[in-house]
Amino acid sequence: MQNDLKEVLAKLAERIASHPAGTRILIENSILFSASNFQTIKNQEKGKIAFVDGGNGEIAKAADCSVQLIRVFGSIHENGKRIFKERQEFIAVITTKKTEKGLSYNIETFNSPWTFNHDFDSFDITLREGVHRASIAKIGEVVRKFAEYKMAEKMLDLLGKGDLLVKDGALENEVTFEEEYLSRLAEKAANKEVSVCGVSKTTNLLTDTGHSASVALNKMAPITKWLYSPAAETKESIVSFAKMHYLAQQVYRIDTNKSNLLSTEQVIALLAKESNDLAFPGYPYGLIEADLFARVSGEECEQAKLRLMNGAFKKLKFNFESLNAHETLNKM
Q1: Which domain range does residue 174 map to?
Q2: Is the Cα dihedral 131, 133, 134, 137 positive or negative?
Q3: Could you tell me the CATH number of the domain that includes residue 107?
């Protein structure tokens, strides 16, 4: 078996190495690859940077209900040092609700500074899984995402002209209702002359030959630390890619608002300045920290579930145990 695996890996490596890079990324309004779009990352010394990320975990689940622990973290760094931090966590309960069109998912929050008055159709095209209705647990991820926007707006209150706000993930309208959060954040940032960008930890974008977009660009790059911009443009944003440290193992997608005071080159320069931690070279330390403080572990969810089931939810234990047959078998 070991020899077979070596042979498979050798053939896979050969196939990947010979894979043509392609001519453009498969994303709306992409731009043909051009060597002239590769740039050296320059130094950028000034400006505060705010970082925002979030996490969520399911505490209890049933076919008609999902109880989620949501946590979001925001911090502000200046000259490589954190000068402010804030963390918010709350419970979101998502339940089914009958409507004229069928079933929708309703969101109620507890101990939260924010409310999310949205009802999602259970067959929402941005959330459903193939022909099946969206999993009710999926709404927990949406609540977390919307809470990140709320925290980002809060961070804007502490920033000024020439500063930068960095949000985990792409700046694009991916789910229903997200556009209003994006627009509000962009408008508030523009009024304060604060620039906004999104950094994606991972990207599944491919080129028109089916090659990984980030791998293809890294092969084409003439230098070891680089910015490639633009790769695509949306109505509001410029999509770029960057390798922000010569030791970096990953290439990141970075979205920048077209209304930014800072240019994409200046934004990447500020990010690169924050991306020198040798534990994870090439990724902004502020986002490493935000991910750590916002993360919701499985152990936390189990502890919260025990407290929940011993409290007022004890009467509903049968409802929540109805989907736990797999968990019971896994513990045997």
Answers
A1: 38-320
A2: negative
A3: 3.30.2170
Q: Is residue 30 part of a domain?
A: no
Which residues lie across from 93 on neighbouring strands?
A: 67, 108
Smallest CA-to-CA distance from 182 within 203, 194, 167 is with 167
Torsion of the alpha carbons at 270, 273, 275 and 281, rounded to the nearest 10 = 140
DSSP helix/strand/coil, 187? helix
Residue 235 lies in a domain: yes
332: amino acid identity, one letter: M
1 part of a folded domain: no
Question: What does 194-235 look like in DSSP terms, one character per residue?
Answer: -EEEEEES----BBTTS-BHHHHHHHH-SSSSEEEEEEEE-S
pLDDT in tens, the chain (332 residues): 667 788 888 887 787 777 788 888 888 889 999 999 999 998 876 789 999 999 999 998 888 899 999 999 999 999 889 999 999 999 999 999 998 878 999 999 999 999 999 999 999 999 988 888 999 999 999 999 999 999 999 999 999 999 999 999 999 999 999 999 999 999 999 999 999 999 998 888 888 888 888 888 988 998 889 999 999 998 889 999 999 999 998 999 999 999 999 999 999 999 999 999 988 999 999 999 999 999 999 998 988 888 877 765 555 554 555 445 445 445 54
* Residue 17 maps to a domain: no
Side-chain-side CA neighbours of 254 within 13 Å: the count stands at 32
pTM: 0.89
In terms of C-beta density within 10 A (0-12 exposed, 13-18 middle, 19 or more buried), how is residue 222 classed?
A: exposed
Total structural domains in the chain? 1
